[in-house]
Design goal:
By secondary structure, this protein is an alpha/beta fold. It has 16 helices and twelve strands. It has a single domain, classed as Alpha-Beta Barrel (TIM Barrel). It has an eight-stranded parallel β-sheet. Strands 1-12 form a two-stranded antiparallel ribbon. Strand 6, helix 9 and strand 7 form a beta-alpha-beta unit. It starts with 6 loop residues before the first helix and ends with a strand. The structure holds flavin mononucleotide and 2-Ketohexanoic acid. The site of flavin mononucleotide has 23 residues, from helix 5.
Length: 391
């Protein structure tokens, strides 16, 4: 497996793909000097009309193993598809003659104001998609003012990412089978400044990733693509996922860190009730982008019963299948306080590194703003369930 992409190659393929290779000679701004050092010409950026254009380019420049790992799901990827398709069944009810000359996308979460409700989901092994990995993603998130969640299985460690990007990060935790090791992971995250711990609860074991085959296992044991957070602490025989995990972990986390605790992977009303009982600070409605248990409902179908149960007591976030501003609008209307995106920013990363992540974020934010204008909702609080039908 050759996980590393050559920036120069990526850039050349990009220019070929948009049919601009000839212009490289005419415009120094799009010289073939490598995408890390050069800025893209504005005209080039406009070639990316939506996140699917970035997906198209990422498929041209990333290796097959990386594409399969990124885009694949469990079994036949039915839940991967369901996440996307379910948004299409919901329609928007727009209101007219409302002043939408100024739009605010600000949201408040855990006592802090965020510029947009669009958050970057934790995605592991980002060096597999681009050599700059999570550092590129973090730099883009800082520049574009989006919150990033760093995966436990990131290639750069959480402190390297924080130091190189100056980002205020949230940390996603996979508790290991050894609590001493897990404790050290938490200490590292807190030292890197993380104030929120996103505990993923849908991975007692790894799903059946047929499309990616053995790639994930190879990544976990790869010598080139190390899992930065575990350097020097992962002891022989420690599992990076724990099939014995129960609700007891919440009180253990409370006793062992000061971060807010957000559960990622809740898909039922029953577990939303338990999350409240155990006193977590927030939940993310997620099916892991369809990568864990096949045949789960789409996340947007799970959202109504969970919102109904939580009744605004803690923030409810959602991820899975969000590809358009209208998807974000629909999730917010049904009651999510914010949304997270996974594959779309990775397509940008794989295609163009930091610049590609920035483009993905720009596209989704611009779409959301335009959709808010067209629907007659000048701020996020105005997007209520009266604006959607068919869920
Ligand atoms: C390549 C890849 C790696 C992922 N790694 C993690 C991870 O390390 N931790 C985690 O909680 N979720 C992980 N996820 C799941 C995402 O956080 C998120 O739930 C999912 O990607 C959202 O769906 P979307 O890709 O359709 O936006 C990963 C997803 C992908 C595609
Ligand atoms: C142990 C899981 C590793 C990364 C992950 O969550 C994914 O590939 O979906």
């Amino acid at each position: 497996m050759d996980p590393f992409q050559n920036s120069d190659l990526q850039r050349r393929k990009f220019l070929e793909w948009i049919g601009l290779s000839g212009l490289a000679l005419a415009f120094p701004a799009i010289s073939l000097s490598g995408c890390q050092s050069s800025r893209f010409h504005e005209d080039e950026k406009q070639e990316f009309k939506n996140v699917f254009d970035l997906e198209g380019l990422s498929e041209k420049v990333m290796g097959k193993d990386a594409i399969d790992y990124l885009n694949g799901g469990a079994d036949d990827s039915k839940t991967v598809k369901a996440n996307v398709v379910a948004y299409q069944k919901i329609q928007i009810r727009a209101r007219r003659l409302i002043d939408v000359s100024t739009i605010s996308t600000k949201v408040e979460l855990f006592g802090q104001t965020y510029e947009t409700p669009i958050i970057l989901s934790p995605v592991g092994f980002q060096k597999f998609f681009h050599q700059d990995g999570e550092v590129a993603t973090a730099k883009a998130s800082v520049k574009k003012q989006h919150q990033m969640i760093v995966s436990s299985v990131s290639n750069y460690s959480v402190n390297e990412i924080a130091a190189q990007s100056q980002a205020d990060l949230w940390f996603q935790l996979y508790p290991t089978t050894n609590r001493e090791v897990t404790k050290k992971l938490l200490e590292r995250a807190e030292k890197a400044g993380c104030k929120v711990c996103v505990l993923t609860v849908d991975t007692p074991v790894i799903g059946n990733r047929e499309r990616g085959g053995t790639t994930l296992t190879k990544l976990i044991y790869s010598k080139e693509l190390k899992m930065g957070n575990y350097e020097g602490i992962l002891t022989e025989g420690t599992g990076i996922d724990d099939p014995g995990l129960t609700w007891e972990i919440i009180s253990w986390l409370r006793a062992n860190c000061d971060m807010k605790i957000v559960l990622k992977g809740i898909v039922t009303r029953e577990d939303a009730t338990l999350a409240l009982e155990y006193g977590v600070d927030g939940i993310i409605v997620s099916n892991h982008g369809g990568r864990q248990l096949e045949s789960l409902r789409s996340t947007i179908e799970c959202l109504p019963e969970i919102v109904e149960e939580i009744k605004g007591r803690i923030p409810v976030l959602i991820d899975g299948g969000i590809r358009r501003g209208t998807d974000i609008f629909k999730a917010l209307a049904i009651g999510a306080n914010a949304v997270c995106i996974g594959r779309p920013f990775c397509w940008g990363l794989g295609a163009l590194g930091q610049e590609g992540v920035e483009i993905a974020l720009d596209i989704l934010k611009a779409e959301l703003i335009r959709d808010m204008q067209l629907a007659g909702t000048p701020s996020i609080e105005k997007i209520t369930c009266d604006f959607v039908i068919g869920f």
